[in-house]
Amino acid sequence: MSVNIAAVDLGASSGRVIWARYDPVDGSLSMQEMHRFANGMVHKNGHDCWEPDQLLSHILLGLEKIDAAGIQLDSVGVDSWGIDFVLLDESGNRLGDAVSYRDARTDGVPEQVWQQMPQDDIYHRSGIQHLKFNSLYQIRALLDEQPAWLDRAVRLLLIPDYLHYRLSGEFSCEFTNASTSQLVNAHSRDWDPELVALLGEGGKWLQPITAPGTLLGHWTSPSGHPVSVILPATHDTGSAIAATPLVGSSAAYISSGTWSLVGVERSTPLTGSAAQAANLTNEGGVEGTCRVLKNVMGLWLVQRLQTLWPNLSFAALVELAEQSEAFDYLIHPNDERFLNPPCMRTAIQQFCRETGQGTPQTPGELVRCVLDSLALCYDQVLAEIEIVTGELITTLHIVGGGSQNQLLNRLCANICQCTVLTGPVEASALGNIGWQLKGLGLLKDLEDVRRMVRRNTRIDTLHPREVPQLDLHRTRFAALCAYTHSDMIEEVA
């Protein structure tokens, strides 16, 4: 008999409840989006926050739509972004707001933490790249702001763990998401006592780490049917890479969406000095794998530009970019000014003026600037990974919603000078579904999940073409990154 699964896939700008039907006899999979809803930050109580209970209401609405269609679900699981969390009191009620990683509350907090433990030691233990909004620094910021919560808070749950709790009534802390917190030891794959000690009394809020594929509990559908709540890789990138048909050590990936996660899959973390110098991160994957990658500020930049021209679709903006001159303007996408500026156009124009490039004005010029810069940044990250691993990258998988951007795909193939394989578009949802199927005992392992993905999705191939003056563009981009780095050092000093 066919199996029915609900995959809840949450991103920074939208969420979806997807119904999947899997036939264990012939291995076929069909997927249907049953409910899509907007997600975004709201500003309240002085912070940029998420609204997890509103997300929950949309999840329940999507599940109810599936039930109303006469579909009897076998399981449900949630994946989302990492790092952010909520606190619960003894009765299981939420304390305060779910503050977003884009909020400014962690400004200056890493420097305070480094006085207790040097940044090098934190990296060698956690393997996580320095980002000022990692959970470690967010929790410290919260403790400084709300010290009275130490007496009231009992549990800390990352966003998908909170939603699983609300569905099943059971507490968990799924591994792939926990690994992004900078509190997990990269080698033991458990909470690091020395890093947790940096939280003081706040360390007691952390829950035991749970493996993906765990049957957590049950949600009762409106028709009264018990539905298994199974933990997928709850970090959306963890699910996306589980669904990426990687083959061999020469294959890299970009999980392309609001963020671009550029990396390789390995069996052991890379936490040495070379990896730290490149600011690579080691996020936990399914089945003992490690995602060695770097976070790049991805299509968030275009999403924010799009708000300025509501009459232009994303596709229309990319078309205008394609008509604009290549490499006229470049930015360093990971410059901190692009994390959450009041106006993305102003931030891009200011960067270009500061670096003597003039000022991009039209929508096409601004979006082309972003896409050229992203492709050059991907190329730079892949080169860093090659140096750290000592292995040449010849194939690049681009998965997720961003894999539909044909201009950016071509730029990646040409600038990175490697074969690009695009798809699956629904990588996070497919990985979520695949690991629920493993939890149900219908798929055996990671290779089985990837075999299912290859059988049921389309993968397209792009071969690289020559780019005139490519080395010149690479050199120019590296100089812009060096400018940004020096500028940020001066601000910190």
Key terms:
493 residues, six-stranded mixed β-sheet, disordered C terminus
Poorly predicted segments: 486-493
The N- to C-terminal Cα distance equals: 64 Å
Determine the strand fraction and express it as a percent band: 15-25%
- Shape label: globular
Question: If you average the pLDDT, what whole number results?
Answer: 95
Structural class: alpha+beta
Helix run count: 17
Strand order of the largest sheet: 15-16-14-13-17-18-19
- Give the helix proportion (percent range): 25-40%
Largest pleated sheet: 7 strands, mixed
**Count of strand segments:** 19
Any idea what the radius of gyration is?
A: 22 Å
Structural description of this entry:
Helices cover 38% and strands 21% of the residues. By secondary structure, it is of the alpha+beta class. A hairpin with a 3-residue loop joins β1 and β2.
Task: Summarize the model shown.
The protein is of the alpha+beta class and 493 residues long. It has 17 helices and 19 strands. The longest helix has 27 residues.
